[in-house]
Amino acid sequence: MDDDEVLQLQQGDSTEPELNNPDNAPPPCMNQAENPPEPAHGEEEENIEKPRPKQKKIASKVWDHFTKEIVVVNANGEKEIAIKAKYNYCKVRLGAESRNRTTHLKNHFMRCIYKKNVKIDVNQQLLNSSNAKFNGSITLENFKFNQETSRRELGNMVVLHEYPLSIVDHLGFKKFVSSFNPLFKMISRNTLKSDLLKNFEYEKESLKKYLENLESRVAITTDMWTASNQRKGYMAITGHFIDGNWILRSRILRYNS
């Protein structure tokens, strides 16, 4: 074998790639600075702080009875523009700037005498004693003031505890009632007497209808006594019966002196 054949065999067994062959060239490397890797899903949202929505301020109920006005006032000899709240009933103007808040408006609304003919819808979370249970617990629910209901309960209190009709004229009693609910308009003794007579007629008619539909029997008893301070005799006729819940009831049917 001559030298030319040996040289050809060595060139054919070579496994190194040819640098000038474009097919065997290695793939170009990516420039990381120019093409950075994409962030994982959700990673970008966590780093960006989202703006919080602004909460809308709740307007006070007292603004139903006041009107905002822009007026010009004299301060230290100079005219300035100020925001005032005009009361819709007595037309008085009070401060309405944001720093004033609404406490002074509520106080004026409770004290003003011109609101006595205004129909007010007061819905608040109050303790409603009418739903008090036997265990002493009281439920918290919406309460709506009613002048007629309060007048009826006032008459029931006078009859139950035998208070004089003049109790509505007592200054201490008026202050006591006003401390609970300033919206209640105190009545006179003549109005209280009229309410008691109307309530008596209503209860009498209701008792008649109840006894007409009563299925049980009625036992009647009489009671007579003489008042020592008046030297006067009295007689009361009382009916006793058992209602549908098997509870013994007693009702006064007649009362004479």
Task: Describe what this molecule looks like in 3D.
With 257 residues, the protein is α+β, with helices and mostly antiparallel strands. It has helices at 3-12, 43-47, 103-111, 147-161, 171-180, 189-212; strands at residues 66-75, 78-87, 93-95, 123-127, 140-144, 219-227, 232-242, 248-256. The strands form 3 sheets. It has a 3-stranded antiparallel sheet. α4 (147-161) packs across α6 (189-212). The chain is elongated, with a radius of gyration of 45 Å. Residues 14-19, 120-127 and 129-134 have low confidence and may be disordered.
Q: What is the CA-atom radius of gyration, in angstroms?
A: 45 Å
Could you tell me the number of beta strands?
8
Largest sheet: 3 strands, antiparallel
Mean pLDDT rating: 75
List keywords for this structure.
single chain, 257 residues, alpha+beta, three-stranded antiparallel β-sheet, 6 helices, 8 strands, 24% strand
Secondary-structure blueprint:
Layout: H1 3-12, H2 43-47, E1 66-75, E2 78-87, E3 93-95, H3 103-111, E4 123-127, E5 140-144, H4 147-161, H5 171-180, H6 189-212, E6 219-227, E7 232-242, E8 248-256
Q: Could you give a quick summary of the protein structure above?
A:
By secondary structure, this protein is an alpha+beta fold.
